[in-house]
Amino acid sequence: MGEQLGLLGYDYVEFYVGSAKMWAYWHAKAMGMKIIGYSGPETGVKGKVSYYLEQNNLRIVVTSAINPSQYQIHQFVERHGDGVKRWSLKVKDVRKAFDGAIKNGAIPAWEPVRTENENGWVEEAALKLYDDAEIVFVNRDNYKGIFKPGYGKPIQKIDIVSEDTGLQAIDHIVGNVRTNEMDLWVNYLNKSLNFETFIDFGPGDISTQYSALLSKVVRSTEGPAIKNPINEPYEGLKKSQIEEYIDEYLGSGIQHVAVITNDIIKTIAAMRKNGMEFLSVPDSYYDTLKERGFEVTEDIGELKKYGILCDIEGKGYLLQLFTKPIGDRPTFFYEIIQRRKGAQGFGQGNFQALFESIERDQAQRGSLDK
C-alpha cells in the first residue's frame, strides 16, 4: 500500500470545447444545470472563456479558447474534438496528495498552484492520465467566491427554461484505451492513487454477435467511493464501440461520465422533455425482464416507457440509461444511473441490450465494419 493521499471524492469535470457558451447553454437546457460562474476577459482572464455549472453536487466546467495564445486548448479540440480534458478529486491537502501520488509512481502534469483574491484561495495540482487527459487534486475549502479565482457571475442574466432533472453527483468516470493499454492504466491508478481493482470483465464477459471489449474497474480505498472503469477493444467480427471511439477521438481518453439520480424515471422523463437523445432499447428487453422475475420497486411499464435498463445485483439492483454522443463526433456521452439497495456494480446484465443499441447507431454512421 502506497502513501495515503487524503482523497475526498469527485469535485468537477472540465471539458475543452469549440464554443464554451454553446456547451454551457446545452448543459443548462438538456441537463437542467445552472450556469453559476463565468471566466474570461471581463473577469481578468485573457485568451479563453469558461462557464461553471452546478446542480446539487454535480459540477461541470466548459472551456474554449478565444485566441491562439491558448495553444493547449486549440490543440486538444483540433485533435480530439469536444471532450473531457480533466476530472478532479477533492483532497484534504493538495501538496501532500500530489507529493504522495508522485512518490507512488504518478506522472506530474503540473505542480501545486495557489490562486487567490479577496474571497480567499484555491489550490490545485495535476497528474497525467491517458493521452491528453489529467487528474486534478483540488482544495476549495478556503474560498468563499464563485468556484475559484478568475470566476464571477455570468456577465449577462441567463434564464434558460428547462425541466428539473434531479441530477445529483458523479457516480463514475469511464476511460477508453488502446489495445493492451488497459492493464497499464489500471496498474497506474492502483499504484498512484492507492486504488484497487474492483471488477474484471475478461474475454467473453462483454460481447455481442459482432463486437467485444475488455474492462476493469478500479476504485478508491480511502474516503468516499471513486470508481473508474477502463475499457480496451477485444477482437470481434466487426468494429467495437471502443475501436470507434479511439478512431474518432484519435487516441485514448474519457468516454463517459455517469451521473447519479435518486429517481431515474423522473430524471429521464425531464431530460427527454429537455431534448436529450438516448440510446433506444427494444421492447423485447422488457419482456425478458418480466420473465426473469425481477423484484423492483419501479413499474416495469414505466421503465419501458422511458427506455430505462434494469439489472439485479445481489440484494440490490441498478437502473441506467445512456445518452447518445453529445458532440459531433461519436465519442463522449453521459450515463444516468440510480443505485437501489446498495448495488455497486455497472449493469453487466444490461451489456447485451446496451451494446446492441450502440451497434445500431454505429451501423447508421457506417462505422460498424472494420
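(ticket continues) Second input and output from the same batch:
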Amino acid sequence: MAALATLLERIGLAFDDTTCITQALVHRSFMHEHASGVPASNERLEFLGDAVLSVIAAELVYQAYPAADEGQLTEMRAALIRTTMLADHARALGLGAFMRIGRGAERGGARDNDNVLADGFEALIGAIYQSHGLAGARTFLEPRLRQHMAVIGTVDDARADDFKSRLQRDVQRSLNQTPRYRTVGTSGPDHQRTFTIEVHLGEQVLGVGSGSSKQAASQDAARRALEQRAALEQPGG
C-alpha cells in the first residue's frame, strides 16, 4: 500500500488524527482476511460519505440551475454522482494504490474496479466530514464536482445520459467528422465481463472507457472524450 502521507497531501487538508482516513481505505475483503487485526471496513464511512456527497451535489445543482424543477434537479444530481464519475475522482487521487484489499479481490481486479473505487471515494468523503465537518468536505468536493458539471452540460443532457450523441454533435459541428468506436480489450469471467473501448477521430484517440457492456463502455469513452475537450477549451488548456 502506498504511503498515507502522499494521499493526505493530495487531499489538501490537515489531519490531526488519521484514524478515519485509514479506515476509509479498508475494503471489506481485507477485513475478512485479517479479521483479528482490522476492527472495521470502510462501509460505515461509505454510508456517511454518500449522504454528505448527496447534500453538496444537491447544493451545487440547485445554485447552478435556478430554472430547473425538482425532477430536473434530481436528474442533474444523479448524473453528477454516478459511480463512473466517483471512480474517476478516485483515480485522479490514485486512491486504488492506497486501499487495503484482500488477496482474492486483488487478483480479481478490485483495485481498479469502478464500484470499489467509488465506494472508497465515498468512504474518504465520510472520513473528511468526520474530521473537518461539512465545510471541509465541501472544500474537497466542490472543485471536483464542478469539473464534471461542465461535462454534463444542460438538464436535458443529464436526462438523456447519452454522451455518444453529445460527442457526435460536438465533433460534427466543430470538425465535420464522425467519431468511431473500437473495442480494445475484454477482461473478467464470462458472468462479469469488463469491456474497454476507445473512441477515435481518424488516428487520434479522443477517450478510453470501460463498462460491463460494450454500450456502457462506449458511453464512458464518449464521456471521457467530452471531458478532455472541455479541459482543452478552458483558459490555459
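Agent notes: The first helix runs from residue 4 to 11. The mean pLDDT is 86. Closing as not reproducible unless the customer responds.
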